[in-house]
Amino acid sequence: MKQFFKFVLATITGIFLLMGIFFLVILSLVSSSTKKQTVEVQDNSVLTIKLNYELPEKTDDNPFEAFASELTGGDVGSPVGIYEILKSIEHAKTDDRIKGIFLDLTFVGSGYARLTEIREALEDFKKSGKFIYSYAEIYYNQTYYLASVSDSIFLNPKGNMIFNGMSAEITFLKETLAKIGIEMQAIKHGKFKGAVEPFTRDNLSDENRKQIDEYINSVFENYLAAVGKSRKLTTEELKNIANDLKVTNPTSAVEYKMIDALAYRDQVFKTMAEKAGLNKDKKDVEQITLAKYARTLRNESEGDAKKIAIVYANGDIVSGNGQQDEIGSDKFIKALKAAREDENVKAVVLRVNSPGGSALASDVIWREAMLTKKVKPLIVSMGDVAASGGYYISCIADTIVAMPNTITGSIGVFGLYPNAEKLMDKLGVHSEFVTTSDFADFGRIDRPLNAREMEVLTALVEEVYSDFVGRVSEGRSLSTAFIDSVAQGRVWTGTMARKNGLIDVYGGLNKALEIAAFKAGIETYEIASYPKMDNPFASFMASFNGASIKQKLIKEELGENYQVYDRLKKLQGMTGIQAIMPFFIDAY
After folding, report:
1. Are residues 356 and 278 part of one domain?
2. Rounded to the nearest 5°, which phi and psi values hold at 491?
3. pLDDT digits (tens, 9 = 90+) for 518-563
């Protein structure tokens, strides 16, 4: 028996020793890969911007991210967030080592508002006299929108480009749900609040069709104006190209002056080398990636320096801490509180990129934003979308900054309750409830809501809508009657929202920072980003857990269709009254 216990004890000790060695090796590798490394920018370099990922608002501050990136063969520190992208382009403008920018536009994962921020930064870069070249194997609306700012646009000779305008697609599930025995019971306020329509209708309501038609044409008009100015084509010429489907291949893209030349990647590099004056020495262009260049611009905080806090609100709004791609109310109010209580933070920029979510969580965040506004300038910078709950948490700000093609508004609320009575009958599933009062089984899914229950839910929705309108009225200093007239769940572009008084100024994150600095009375400042990562090591190790690996595998397998899967999962997890945009926007 003693030998047995000795063997067990030795085995346990060995396991712990191996685990200890494993973690020491991991920490050693991580330390070596994450410690501040010197990135040398060579003379005659070209800054290569390749945004082949879903563009994040904030560069991941996890110190283990670089290690994970190296393990997967990626570029250290990628992907880069919007602020560091803008900062890198701005710095490259005056960096003598940088001769130009190369836009590698295979894929861009972003909406038009944030692309416009990047595009405007590139336009400003061109004032330096340095070149911008773009190359892609396939151009679609978003990649071409960025490419159009370039001095020269190159397309692979065997690539493709089809210029055919923009469309919005709404998928209706009412009939599908009916076939399996589920009826969705909707309670909403806002005649334009179309979030319930995919579950309760087989087609668009007149109001929803109207708002979609107006916002998508507004986005397209902004798109055509920007592209036309850069390409020296009129809006009418571009509309004719799209309406007649004139550009369908590389040859026609050159013919109609949307592409400058057809070339392979190596030929583009040769042209850039000549432009950089390297053709005499027959040298290749020195490239530095965006991720590496951004690292050269990161400075250690001086501690007592004046700061402007950027608090990033990205994703669906939910109660609790939420996931990494969600705005969890608990996590978010901690971030606002930390920024508010930091004496070195002189102003707060709330960067919102959200279609909304839980009405309750939105109000919890609104309260913290209001408290912050009382002690420091609070400026909102809207990204691609800041609608419904995203607008709820924005409306209290001193100044709201948005791009003309930002999607915003959607001031409305709804609730959805499933009635699965027929499905239960089909499955032969039957339930009995023993209750203490008449409505103790309120919310059961094996029967429809009765009149009294519907009355209660309607009153809840009406109350939340009234609160929403009141919050906006207070924040925007406009009457509740006027806000109600532009609310009703209606979605607006930034252009429309400015006319309605829902935003103040056109611009991106840099414009918001400029306004924040002015209101705070400071000229020089550092940036403090929130929310802070609580436990980087735990986050790193979580990336190896089963759920995370499963998510990555599903995402890899489904590709672009992962978004549909992800949205259905999020809809399934919604509880309580919702303030969320009536549709998801994908622009291709």
Report:
1. no
2. -90, 135
3. 999 999 999 999 998 655 555 545 444 444 445 555 555 555 555 5
Q: What is the DSSP letter of 284?
A: P
414: tokens are 């709804």
Active site residue 388: yes
Residue 333 CA to residue 359 CA, distance in Å, equals 15
Asked whether residue 225 is domain-assigned, the answer is no
Per-residue pLDDT of 275-301, as tens digits, reads 877 665 556 678 899 999 998 887 655
The reply to whether 344 falls in a domain is yes
Which of 148, 152, 354, 388 is catalytic? The answer is 388
**pLDDT value at position 129?**
94
Residues 350 and 483 in one domain: yes
Q: Which of 273, 296, 319 is the last residue of a domain?
A: 296
Note whether residue 71 is domain-resident.
yes
193 catalytic residue (yes or no): yes
Whether the per-residue pLDDT at 26 is higher than 80: the answer is no
| pLDDT score at 444 | 86
The residue among 261, 296, 331 that closes a domain is 296
pLDDT score at 224? 97
Give the DSSP H or E segment for 559.
none
Instruction: Encode pLDDT of 450-498 as tens digits.
Output: 999 899 988 988 999 999 999 999 999 999 999 999 999 899 999 999 9
Per-residue pLDDT, averaged over 558-579, amounts to 54
Residues 443, 517, single domain; the answer is yes
Residues 276 and 338 in one domain: no
HEC string for 94-134: HCCCEEEEEEECCCCECCHHHHHHHHHHHHHHHCCCCEEEE
Residues 442 and 519 in one domain: yes
Helix, strand, coil percent values for the chain (each to nearest 5):
45, 20, 35
Helix (H, G, I), strand (E, B) or coil at 483: helix
Claim to verify: residue 460 and residue 413 sit in the same structural domain: yes
What is the rounded CA–CA span in Å between residue 90 and residue 294?
Answer: 11
- Return all residues near 206 (Cβ < 8 A) that are at least 6 apart: none
Return the CATH number at 386. Answer: 3.90.226.10
Selecting among 93, 193, 292, 376, the annotated active-site residue is 193
- How many domains does the chain fold into? 2
Please state, in angstroms and rounded to a whole number, the distance separating the CA atoms of residues 238 and 499: 27
Pick from 9-13, 49-53, 544-548: least confident: 544-548
Q: How far is CA 532 from each of CA 66, 333, 336, 526, rounded to the nearest angstrom?
A: 17, 12, 11, 16
Same domain, yes or no, for 350 and 255?
no
Per the domain annotation, does 122 fall within a domain?
yes
Q: Which domain holds residue 491?
A: 307-535+576-580
Burial grade of 587 (CB within 10 A; 0-12, 13-18, 19 or more): buried
Rank 72-81, 141-150, 553-562 by mean pLDDT and report only the highest. 141-150
Q: 257 and 148, same structural domain?
A: yes
* Tokens coding 275: 């432009």
What is the pLDDT, as a whole number, of residue 575?
55
Please determine, for residue 565, whether its predicted confidence score (pLDDT) is greater than 80. no
